[in-house]
Please model this.
Amino acid sequence: MAHVVALLAGGLWLAATQLGDELFPIRIGGKAPNFLAVTLPASTARPGPAAAVAKGIDAYAGDVVLLNIWATWCGPCLVEMPSMQRLQQRLGAQGLQIVAVSVDDPGMEAKIAAFVADLNLTFTILHDAPGEIRQIYQTTGVPETFIIGRDGLIRRRIIGADDWSSEANVAFLERLLAEPRR
Model:
């Protein structure tokens, strides 16, 4: 009997490690998984840290987060970024954290920084050169956005570009921002 239990436990562990995404899909109401991406180094970005710093969703625990996965070569990303900046200007002071994670290839930091500068973006821009966030969040492409509540749960998933400064999106985010901190 102990051998059967051990065999089943081993099989479950192997399945969870090899088929994690299939066994535990990203879903609305599920916990937002952590990821690691880096800030742009000061040499390629606006004034900031001297060296790249790793950050993930855990750094924003208790905050309402608009997590956007994008790339500089993505036309729809270029279209939606100005509305994200308008949203930052409107709700940033209320505590909304906009975190845009570029999945551009390694060595593209200068191009990402130029993209950010051209659009005068003031929200958090991170770079995940290996693109691991795409697997972690099981994205279908870019852009893809996840709205994460103060409780760390995914409240909304949007595939494709959106107008983030629309009244419907602002109203939804204001409701989340009105929820008490945990």
Summary: The longest helix spans residues 2-18. Residues 13 and 19 are 10 Å apart (CA to CA).
